[in-house]
Design brief:
- By secondary structure, the chain is α/β, with parallel strands linked by helices.
- It is about 30% helix and about 25% strand.
- The strands form 2 sheets. Strands 5-4-3-6-7-8-9 form a 7-stranded mixed beta sheet. A two-stranded parallel sheet has the order 1-2.
- Helix 2 packs across helix 3 and helix 2 runs parallel beside helix 7.
- The protein starts with a helix and ends in a 15-residue tail after the last helix.
Length: about 220
């Protein structure tokens, strides 16, 4: 219904960033270009992650994205396997990959209540991971007590993009990475009739590098 409404009001071309499900593109009858913020986030993370970090997918569904993080950061990848306890909750039953004594980068496409990542954090610590955990996600919604769930001494940094305006301005561990260069270059290319395939790789290479500020909650 939302896709039809957007087309009805005259939208003729759609640009998305890390859809929760890629199949959503199939609901549109207009051109859709799907971008990813993974290279942009990796560029921000590269100089801030400790040596020996392991990229961790919170479930099988995000393993492909975790693999891309691992490729760009030159890091190994682990994945958490879950079992469903009931219709509303799951439990991590196995950590597949070597995390013993190593710092970890937990990734996801979005953070809503923080419950998935909080559970993943506990599973990693129980598996012997170093109490030095970083989190990266494209969309930071932070609703329903997400900050409380993610305010753990082992979490050293949380990185999200500005796809959604961050409402928490006094969270020392939270950093916001700007998507403006990626979206600006996308719009320029579309207006000029130029292709987009290499755009995400250019982001990690630093072709467009926005400034950082000294604020705790800052744009990178």
């Amino acid at each position: 219904m939302v896709a039809e409404l957007m087309e009805t009001v005259g939208i003729g071309h759609l640009v998305t960033v890390d859809l929760h499900a890629a199949q959503i593109e199939g609901f549109f009858h207009i051109p859709v270009d799907g971008l990813t913020a993974v290279p942009t986030l990796c560029r921000a993370l590269a100089a801030r992650l400790p040596a020996g970090v392991v990229v961790v997918s919170p479930d099988e569904g995000r393993f492909k994205a975790a693999t891309e993080y691992g490729r760009l950061l030159g890091a190994p990848v682990a994945v958490l396997h879950k079992s469903r306890e009931n219709g509303a909750s799951t439990r991590v039953i196995k950590v597949v990959g070597e995390v013993q004594g190593r710092p970890c980068l937990l990734i996801d496409d979005m953070i809503t209540t923080g419950g998935t990542l909080a559970g993943a954090l506990q599973a990693l610590l129980q598996a012997g991971a170093r109490a030095e955990i970083y989190i990266a996600a494209t969309h930071g919604l932070f609703v329903d007590g997400a900050r409380a769930k993610l305010s753990h001494p082992a979490i050293r940094g949380i990185y999200v993009t500005d796809s959604v305006t961050a409402t928490t301005s006094d969270w020392p561990e939270l950093s916001v990475v700007s998507l403006a260069p990626l979206l600006g270059e996308t719009i320029r290319r579309l207006c000029a009739g130029q292709p987009l395939p290499d755009l995400n790789e250019r982001a990690i290479a630093g072709a467009e590098s926005p400034p950082a500020t000294d604020q705790r909650l800052h744009n990178i």
